[in-house]
Fold this protein.
Amino acid sequence: MEPISFVEARTLYCADNLQQLVDFPSECVDLIYLDPPFFSNRLYEVIWGDEAEVRSFEDRWEGGIQVYINWMKERMFELQRVLKPTGSIYLHCDWHAGHYLKVMMDEIFGYKSLQNEIVWFYKTGGTSKRHFSRKHDTILFYTKGANYTFKPQKEKSYLAHKYGFSNVTIEEDEGGWYTEVGMRDVWDIPALRGNQPEAMGYPTQKPEALLERMILASTNKGDLVMDPFCGCGTTIAVAQRLGRQWVGIDISPTAVGLMKRRVEKQGASDVRVVGVPITVQELKELKPFEFQNWVMQRLNGTHSARKTGDMGIDGFSFMAHDPIQVKQSDKVGRKVVDEFETAIERAGKNNGYVVAFSFTKPAREEVARAKAQKKIDIRLIKIADLLGPEDQPDLRAPELSDMFPKPTMSFLDLPLPEARDKKALPSPLELIESDRRSRARA
Ligand SMILES: C[S@@+](CC[C@H](N)C(=O)[O-])C[C@H]1O[C@@H](n2cnc3c(N)ncnc32)[C@H](O)[C@@H]1O
């Protein structure tokens, strides 16, 4: 790819951020927020949206902390380069690696460039009998130079009583009497709950209120905000809402699909998406989980819950709610169609879709037989037919809630995005089995 000479705003890159960043020019970004996968040296498992699978969330770091720090360091050199001399960077850390990351940041930005070690304090469930409950993350706020954009923010400081304050203005709200003070570096912001309107079911999604503070303090309207580990797009959604320019990068096509819809909901138009899989070969190389998400997004479908997943139904079409089965393989044959026919019947439906790279002649014959004998209409959809320009007519632009049902639904009665308790983690054997089953289905 030719290096780009300027950064085009309102662009989402589906790429490894290191590969992407090297193409960016120097000193073009005003604010960077990054929330990389945490180092945990053990499996950090989350349930992803549809409950169908326990997903491992890409933060297994074999080789120990130094491997992780080196991985981050390479990226941080590039981030430092693309930051404007007046720019700021906020690095979101948890207790596993925060201390190592701070030393690394000092090396790259300079010891004196640390402006704040922000503590984000939240009150989630879960406690321990062996240590104090871990209820905070750390956000390291560094600037590139000494002359940086900073607009002091205010917060409410609650008072025990109304009386005895002569030289401050006091007001009352639902929390009691308060006075406004300069914002401090301990931020008491509730963790995201699955039933909040902004929740998208994305593991590790951060609250918008957190990003709002950083963006308001460290940018002016029209400034460029970048998130190189963008997830479901919290940073860019807030940037869009606050009238800032933005760029998002994430390695996951699922994440990029989600963030595109999210910023468009915030009113962004002409959003450019670069790097999502566009060829059959690229789609063949996707992980089964990403592949299934890609198909569901393309069809405007919803993911199925575990029960139907076990029946061989991976999702349902929009509106008619007809079963969809996704196969990441070629030459899908008669047996698959035959078994899917049974699944359709058990689901009490007359129509269904099988999506794959190609189908055999016997599969097509089985479709004709099901139609003639049982009046069951199975449509075989080839992946090549789903590929096309981004603006190809869809049945309807889906709501996010259609694609990723909120946890208020009966099958997803779990708060997201918290990681599960360590004791509840599946054993490695269970994970391997889960992975094997999802591959076998694909
Ligand atoms: C902790 S999540 C970010 C969540 C985000 N702050 C939000 O509120 O949705 C980390 C993200 O980094 C992405 N990621 C991991 N490695 C990456 C890489 N090398 N390049 C780009 N994105 C990466 C993952 O796909 C994941 O979406």
User: Anything to note?
Assistant: The chain has a mean pLDDT of 82. The longest helix spans residues 65-82. Residues 16-17, 35, 37, 58, 202, 204-206, 229, 231-232, 234, 249-252, 255 surround S-adenosylmethionine (CB under 6 Å). Residues 159-184 form one domain.
